[in-house]
User: Fold these one by one.
Assistant:
Number 1:
Amino acid sequence: MVTAASPIRLAAPNRYARDHATGLRPVAPTPPPAEKTMSHRVTERILRTLSSLTLVATPLLATCLRPSPVGAEDWPTYQHDNARSAISDEDLAGPLHEVWVRRSRHRPRSAWDEPAIWDGWAKISGLKNRQVFDKAFQVAAVGDAVFFGSSLDDKVYCVDAKTGKTRWTYFTEGPVRLAPSIANGRVYVGSDDGCIYCLDAASGRLIWKQRPVDRDRRVPGNGRMISVWAIRTGVVVIDGMAYCCAGVIPSETVYVCSFDAQTGSPHWKTAMRDYPAEGYLLASATRLYVTTGRNRPLVFDRATGKRLTQAVGGTGGTYALLTGDTLLFGPNKTGAVEAFDAAKKDHLASFAGDHMIVTRNISYLQTDKELSALDRNAYVSAFVARHQATEARQELVKQFKKLKNPSRERTEAIKTRLGQLSQQIRRQTEALGHCLQWKVPCSRSLALIQCGHTLVAGGKGGVAAFDTDRGRRVWQADLPGNIYGLAWANGRLYVSSDTGAIHCLAAGKLAVSSIRSRGLDRANHLGRASARGGNGRGR
């Protein structure tokens, strides 16, 4: 049941308040569908035939999702697109007010706990959590529908974007840890049960299901029985193909896989035994990028599945984004984003921060305490020049130490060259400082997206919005928990926290609808999954 509550008021910086919804009760179950008539069956047969003829017509024929308004923009996958750019061209005109909130009875069951306090071997303290892909229920939003998966009850959800009410759910046989991808009227999602699913976006009907590894072996994992080849990369859909990775235990072999997005037919499968596959996949025009948990990402050829290289720089993590074929990844052990040119296999730059937004000329960098704007091209140029001068200086020092009884002239020449390189390093270090366009305090450090000319940062206790021109904070909202997920689509901001809540914010002062998830307890859920075979719709 949905109950009305007082609206959350979002005011100017440092002045905001909110009221909590009360008297929450479970949502009433949806009545069973009516028996299909002969006309329904004929219509379905026609739709199946038409959908097999053309992929372009599928969204119009196979779904009832209402199209986005003119000027609005969808958010069809995690971080908006397969490059994980986290950029929408749709402007956000704040302040926003909470329209509805879905609350879970339990927190998401993430696969990995927080990291150790310090690395004694490397003598590094304040370690970053490098595996944060499932701390919240990340959403995808298309038209008037919002989609997300649950690590609690193993379901895929479709809810109404205006009200937050459930439209349909689909049971898998394991936790669904990553956001679905929506393409051509279909929902693509992976599960810890070792399968990827293709569902009809309008009804939740199963279109096809594939298990990348033929064997169905289960092992205890995160307090559950999961597949040895769990899908913890999400599913990338591009150019008629669907990509995923199966497996998180290298000794049991991990597979990078490609399927026909329309039929589910396997295309290629590449085995690897040296790294796990965890965190969202990324794709460019020709390459597939695989995040590998706490390690550096791997690069594969999209057409053949051939492994091309591994990213260079830093220690890695599950955060990554693409600009062309330049991969940025992190946050490493200490909070840094590395830039790697996949075509040249070269480490381009290192940025001290946790997340980035990359545009043509400006990059926005989010750290634990600040938000800043950098001249991207100038920064990379100065960084490369300084790096080359530093390497040249180190090599020259190494050569000088190997010399036995060098002449005075030789010694003076080396000293002169070392001085020149030191000056060059200082000049490029100063140039890096000049690349800064603006920098402002920002304690929201866990998520960052761009909505037109506005940056939205999420973190402990809420979200804050900043204009891209000067970094001026334009509004903020106090929300419970740690905000790990942000999505902006069709005039609505979706905010996901580690409490299990999903908040929908929009312009206008509206009453808040609060929906409490039924939150099946574990014993009942496992019994139902077993009885249903884990394959079907349910509430």
Number 2:
Amino acid sequence: MKLGAHHITSVSSVKVLCIYIYIYIYDGLEWTEHINHVVKRISSGSYSIHSARRFLSTDNLRLIKKRCIRNVCNVSYNEHTSPLFSKLAIPNLEDIYKLLLRKLMYFCVHDKLLTPLSTMFSANAEIHDHKTRQRLGPHVQKRQTSKIAKTFIHQGPKLWSNLASELILKNSIKSFTNCLKKHLITQS
């Protein structure tokens, strides 16, 4: 090929620096290779966050997650993220915490916890003889301080007692988790 007096050699691909970002252009003007390159870069970043999560505070993780959601949805840096989480059906960090605690309580109620953990919780039926709806559920301990109120030993039974009865009656952990995820996403 010629452009004016210059000969242009044909190549199958070229990497172009365009405002701090490399763009891969291929002879068929297809974006597949560029998209594959971007996916690898995002996966690498995601793995880095995954590896560092033990060392990051909950607040840092929350900010990173919100930043990522804003980028994916292509909205401004100060856009509220609650509607974005709902739109994408992604639970926020607090909902993930509540989900995991409720799963722990599901195992507790169905006698599937290991002995050291199961001894931390007692059923309401062990505490009193009242015929209430929650008699088989875990007993919410009386708390002495506000610090105890934040522990999983107190929060787990409290969250379990606030669940809808159709969730409590699920037969398998898988159906319980799926329904609970849908419930948490629609609630937020």
Number 3:
Amino acid sequence: MKKVFPAFFLVLILLSFNAATLGVDISISTPAALTMEEGITLVPIIPVCELLGINYFGGRERFSIINVTDDITVSGSLNSLIVTVNGTQTTLSYPVISVEDTLYFSITDVAKIANGVNVRPMKNEVGESIFAIDLPGKKTLMFREIKVDIDLNNFWRDIAFYGRDDNIKADIYQVNIDNDSIRRITYEPFGRPVSDSSLSFDPTMKYISYIGSNGTLVRRVDDPNPRQILPVYDLYSSGILKNNMVYISVFGLQGETLVPKSYTYNVLSNMLTYVGDYLYVSVSSDAAMKLILEPSKNDKTKYDLKYQKGEAQPVTIAPFANLIDTAVTDDGKGIYYIVKEGGEASNALYFYSVAANTAKRIFFDDKGNTVPVRVYIYKTNLVMIMIARDDSAAQHNGTYLSDVDGRNLTKINDSALTVIEGSDYAHYVRPRQGITVVNLLTGASTLYEERGNIYMLDVSHDAKKIAYVTSEAELKVIDLVAKENRKINMRLSVISATFAEDGSLFVDALPEKQSAKILNQYTAPTQAEVDKVRSDGVRTAIISTSKGNITVELYGTQAPLTVANFIKLAENKFYDGLLFHRVVSDFIIQSGDPLGNGMGGPGYTINLEISPELSHVEGALAMARDSDPDSAGSQFYITLSQQTSLNRQYAVFGKVLRGMDVAKSITVGDKIIAVNINQL
């Protein structure tokens, strides 16, 4: 049962353990400030909000901070330099980033969320660098400085990550890791990168669900037209696709109150159903068992953890103010959960029996050495990730194995491992040291990717492969059986990678710049060429294909730039020999890509040219583009039926006069022999 735990409930683990994945030890008693290579110091914003009583909410891509006392509301996008303070946009000194779902601000930007904040660098009694944040009401929050050798600024720049530049767009591609071939899945008009947490697949691989730029979307893999299920929610949104049903949780503001809501969407009947004011924590592969969190009716500061079998009424396990982690047994008969208990720096592990409807605490370190923060079910044992309660017990950090009752605790590794569920392996990542894979049975470890930084890692459902993205935006796959690590060669700058249940790999990616063989060979039309096309008016062209001829008329008066571009490329024989690389039944045929995979062009782009008089009727000739409106180059398409949803988004510049039957007979791989422009 794969966890899709909402980020905002992992407060304790995020404050204390995030940087463990960065190769450093952080105690709970003194949260860490991360000083990056460029000298910028970042602090986790949650402890500041907690001390001031400020409401904080952060999702995978958006955040909101509501300071009722000072009447300050701050909201924005993760990894963005721009935030909105009380309705007015302002620029930060460094982008807001999320490290393992913990929101980090530059220490100089903390003053934006509260009045009267003062920051003081200092040293503690042993000479360690400390940052003191003085807050109103004589409160002071201390952060230990940890210098991290990850240049996040370089990472965002290298792979053109979203948020750093709002003009950066991306789409989803399916990757065949056996032969390095790719298939473009989404062609979003206003696409944005999709975090791997929001991408979900139906086991039959007919549908995918994801959070796009305009809300929660679902589409058939072979259909270019997504259906919008729900509009964008500023704070949190997720979708889990199981058995033709999307389980959706959203979290939005209702006045000054955060309100959770969940829905189901049936992809076959196209029906959206509201199911309750709660959040889905996880859904089993067969959707027979679901864990949900619902605001407690008796205590507004808590949430009730509940389970639901099938469509029966949810059953309450217990109310919690701080639920840290959960794990469900394969047979659905038991639920493990970790909760904050016994003070600020203590957690307890419980087991809940579904049949008996009882919970029993099975692990709590009364000696105060260790705090459990993650739990996994491994065969007939448990794997627990432990952290020290303070620096004096740092030697207790690591991964432990116990029996199902939490007894006979044995340390198996000094690092915080991420267990690859359904396998005998776990892994951890160190900055500039790569991925270490550990065998849980033997304790043996294997190091992969010794150089560079690792980002956006995912594991195949059969636990035999690990896909990850490097700081150079490369996609690599580790085969745990063959013990091989291989780069997937493709012309994509990869942002994230996600395995589907059938082993398919999907990536969120940007096309690389065009090959040097294409660059500078062709030039955009000059203004004089555009003016001549405008004065010429309507012209015709014959697109000769391996299936026959398609005669089109070109509307130079309404779309002079686009027509001039098409004519210039055709007269320079750019289109000769190119393939139809994309064909969607009853939708479009597309060509004009010298690379043949949907990512090529002439080495330049032209501006989007929209004429209200031209629409996507059957046989419309229009320019294909990426998510950037001004990214068209050479690729064009012909609509096989009326497509009104494309109007005013793509540049229509012509229409089929004769040969529509030829256009409808085109299949992927058919060729353009030549494009001949009829002379005036």
Number 4:
Amino acid sequence: MNPWFWVVFLIGIMAVTFPYVGFDFRFLPGDMGDTRFNIFVLEHAKQYFGREISAYWNAGFMYPEAEVITYSENYLGAAPVFALFRWLGADIFTAFQLWLLAITFLNYWASYKLAEHLLNNKKTAAIAAFVYAFSLSITSQMNHAQTFPRYAMPLSLLFLLLWLKDFKARDFALSVTLLVYQFYCGIYLGFMSAIPFGILFIFGLLTRWQHLLVRLKSMADVPVYAGALMLNLWLMLRLFLPYMRRAGHVGLQAFHDVSHSIPTPSSYLAAHPASIVYAPLHRLVDGYTAFWDHWIFPGGLALAGFITVFIMLTVAVIKPKSKTGALFSPALKWFFLAGFIIFFFYLRIDQHSLYYFLHQLPGFGAMRAMTRIINIELLFIGMALAFAVTAVMNSVSAGVSRKNLVLAGFIALLIVENLSHPTKIVRMEKAGIKERHEVLVGKMGHLPPGSIVSYEPDTMRTNAIFYQLDAMLAAQALHLISVNGYTATSDHMYTPYWFEPSTANRLHWFSRFPGMEDTKVHVIN
């Protein structure tokens, strides 16, 4: 990697990411809800990898519900990074902080490698990588750790483009495997990544199918293709069979129930209120349902670059032999066309959206938060900005030193406009969370492993879900099984216990399972 890679990364992670954890590791990103649940799932995967527990999908919460992990993301792909820090001696909270920093590097590195390939410019590739890893848009996603691991998506597209260039079976196998791996990192981003992958695949084959046929005539690559497809089909089935069983029980989302989460033009102009430069723009979505998820403004420079490249690409498609058309390689055309198609499919005007058609595809009906598409779109937005800057730099007649100075100034502006005020971002004191955890671990410490426990505090001074998570994490640390639970969806009979864990509500929940009423439960108050 050249110096531009490291300089931009180090500035980005120190200025943008470290405020969420603190240089003294004082903070945890997000709030007491989703962040701690994500820590629970990561720790659950670590325990499974280390053979501390024998079953993965039957995690120890919301007892006696089966396969409760299928109510949420599973982290099987990204959890090994967390597990590594745990095995090196970090506690669950510090391991989560280190996991965030490591994942951020992987996101940056992966997008840099793709940009380097597409732009053939090691310097401006750092711009694309910065936008993908450190954009202001991500501020609204920091409470959703399941959106952090995005590094497989750029790599899957990189190997797909390499395959479409030379049709080497190895590149095809790597591209498909990385796409499947993205599903293992996060179901949401897996489905969302599959769309640009599919578009690039189709565009490439439509223009280069004859080259593929020539390559396949030798039959030497057929075993590689067959093996890659069979292996990844098996991996997808292993991942999705539990989720399919869950979908058969709870059903899928109707389009009208999720349409409010599809971004609008205002969403792309609404900045997080923590933004140092653009804070007033958060008012643009004040009346929206879950308005905080619509703060996905990627910054003025990035958005301007995206619009500029849309205009340039339109000219290039209409007049391919023009000066503008000559700037786009076939791979760049395919790439940006895929990006703009995604943008328009995930755009809502009033109550109308092309996403309606994607929602009909298998699996898409299970998703509820469409604003998370920004995590994928940032790859195209960042690449567009880097492409525009590359075109300008190549057209300017100036020495290398002067160009480097101008580029450094531009990157400095890019970094500044993506900064957030540390006191306004969503984060919490790690020490308080650890103390809360250790107190409850002490209360449950006398119970033998495998015991069923229900935390039913006499008084709750804050939201009940925080106490549910207290119980889940404490029980997990002691290898207990918890009736307490935390999930976005669950059986309606769990709802009373969710809001008020008590004996009556616990027995109401158990009545859904014949023969469970007499189950021995250790109640902790």
